[in-house]
Amino acid sequence: MKLLMLAAAMTVVLTVPGLAQEHDAGHGAMMSDSAATTAYKAANTRMHTDMDIAYSGDADVDFIRNMIPHHQGAVEMARIVLEHGADPEVKALAEAVITAQEEEIAWMEAWLAKKGL
Length: 117
Known about the structure:
This protein has helices at about 1-15, 20-25, 35-50, 60-85, 90-115. The protein is mainly alpha-helical. It contains 5 helices and no strands. Helix 3 packs antiparallel against helix 4.
């Protein structure tokens, strides 16, 4: 059944004029991203680049070194929703995320500093 549904969906994509070209042009991406989407993509790329650390073999150190950019990515994404979002509940969550993640980042940086790293 799933295979038949997939085949039907592909038939629509391939036979409706312009649909196949739109799909191929962006490899599944929107034709023009919103400012928020562009910002999220940049934040995500930055976070993953920064998480590509040189591993030390110390599970604790490697965890902290990875979590700092992970948390910074969360802060950056929360700031994006504060700038572009509309839902007050989501914005409140974003503010809470910023507060919590910044406190944790400070703790992790201090922990690394105590270890001389």
